[in-house]
Amino acid sequence: MALSGIGVLIAMVLICVAILLTFDWNRAKPWLNARVSDATGRPFAINGDLALSWQRQGQYGGWRDWIPWPYLVAHELQLGNPDWMQAAAPGQPRTNMAELKELTFSLNPWALLQKKIVIPTLTLDGPTLVLVRDKDGKNNWTFQQNQASAWQLELQQLVLRKGAVQLTDAVRKLDLKADISTLEQSVDSYGIGWQASGSFNGAPVKGAGKAGAVLSLQNQTLPYPLQAEVQVGKTHIALQGTLTKPSQLAALDLRLKLAGASMAQLYPLTGIVLPETPPFATEGRLHGTLNSRGGDWIYEKFSGKMGSSDLAGTLEYRSKNPPDQPRPLLKGTVTSKLLQFADLAPLIGADSNASKARRDAPPLQPADKVLPVEPFKTERWDSIDADVQFSGNKILRGKNLPIDTLSTTLHLRDGVLALEPLNFGIAGGHLTSQIRLDGRGHPLKAQIKMSARHLKLKQLLPTLPQMKTSFGELNGDASLSGTGNSVATILGSSNGEVKALMDQGTISKFLLEEMGLNIGNVVLTKLFGDKQVEINCMASDFAVTDGLMQARTFIVDTAESSITVSGQVNLKQERLDLTINPENKRLRVITLRSPLYVRGSFKQPDVSVDKGVLALRAGGVVALGVVAPVAAALLPLIDLGPGKDSPCAKLLSEVSSKPQAPPPGKKYRAKTDKSAAAK
Hints:
alpha+beta, 13 helices
């Protein structure tokens, strides 16, 4: 009986093996098609042959190596799209999300005892994949969620052979097609190559690259090689490196090169807000990990160029982690050894229209305007937070600009951009400022505080030879607030105070004589050389209301003359309306002193004299020359001077108080005691 039972059991096993070896698995396709369709929620079909063979693995040792593993080969597979795509295009033939010429994989039978489906290698030959996302965010690559299964799927290796991928994304405005080919005779670790073309956000896209033939999804330390070069509009991206821990899409380590017309154009690709810049190129090491929040990355020890300036530094990107970190964070340090000051102009839209065209910005700047009108892109500011330090160790600038160094810390929090502090080394001294731009509403609200200390007089106007022997230091403060979405609109609506003073120093006598039109002394100075005139003080105090700078006090007091400036500067209209009145303190002979008028626009200022006063004095010379001796003819050209005491103490006292500004959007109101109040 026992022998009979064993014989029956062996016979049954042999029968099962014979059935498995001889069974026509094509008869199982309807059942498989139905099960996969139910699991995915979309049509699935195996249209070609389905075959099962058995292969010994020889990897365990012992008796288990004698047990063959099933090896499945399926031809002509297709997976359809969800029903909503068919409803979106009624009357059109149903399209497939994926088509596959051949699918091969083996199955570990021992893992089935533990309710695990272990696939050592999955090979896809000739895949065609069509990925679609509509403008409402619905996509065809998200499958329906079924109840949790007790079975686990483990895919250890993926092999991809010649195929194609097409991606149409209405949300990101991406339309891309990539062809994948097998590199049969690759001498390196690359096994597949790809080429892509299409468009992104209206800009043309093209690229090519290589990757490894076998992607190991189980070995978390085996590097998977990647290499790519992609051109998106005017932005060029080149990378080469490895991917490890592919099952987690983590641990990318790449050598990354970036180049383009402006760093701001990286925003659609990276989601990182960067400023407008001249054409740039950088190269550095990018390493980090992907996660469900976007990943954490470090662009380490990069170097490159921005316009004619060099750049170097390290930037770190941390994905958002609510509730403590509701937005991604960008932090790091960027330095420039030689900074071309003109390369900073695009940051505030102060570059030329030709420069704007190169970075794809509309040429908005009117030909007759100086203040930049290009709007800030505040709609991006709430997408990320930032803490980035920037320093320019040496500034290359024009001869008229006495700026030597720059350093700032950029803070971006919840849509509020702050440069605190923004420091310049200028004219042998320093200019410290704090700029705060609140982009959370429309229009933008701005607050500006500036403090200039120890600016050397002879370095402020470096192109004037007469200033080289002058000495003395200028100090000043400004506090302004305004609203608008550009530099021009912010300053054109600004309110506050601007003050400057200088206590003692010297200035070129020739320069002062020219301002006072003392013709005789100008001639003598040109013949016998320049002399220095001692300055008792200089004080200026402007009240700013709705973009109109009104001179409350502006006096330069010297040992020989007192120069008073009155009038206003219209920041909104970019117009000048100033009158310069020089008054001599001593007896002058041969003087044609007359008020100077500074009129016109910022773009084309005009300096003129009171021709009526000059004509009156010149007419007096002619009349007296007819009826009197020559000496009498000199009388209208003699100026005894006012003989007043120096007003320096009072001036310095008035101007030395700190300037004030109302909150953004409130107008400045000057009281009779020159204090400020907001409406």
